[in-house]
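Possible regression after last week's pipeline update?

I re-ran a chain I had predicted before the update to compare outputs. Posting the input and the new output here so someone can diff against the archived version. Not blocking, just want to make sure nothing changed silently.
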Amino acid sequence: MKLAAFNAVCPFEIGDKIGMRKKACAVGGRTLDVIVERTITDIVCMHSVKAGTVKFLYELDNDGRLVEIVR
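New output (post-update):
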């Protein structure tokens, strides 16, 4: 077994509010962007030794799913 260590800083904290862009269909077939405010309720740090990467995954509004937030 290999020893793996990493140092990472998460850009968000639990309780931070973020705005997510959602596509909404309007009358007439036009697509509009709507901003929905979500709250970060859990943060997971995922480290891959093979790829040499560190990712942060976030749970939003206690829905149980983990998503990656791209800035």
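Follow-up from reviewer: compared with the archived run. The radius of gyration is 17 Å. Marking as no regression found.
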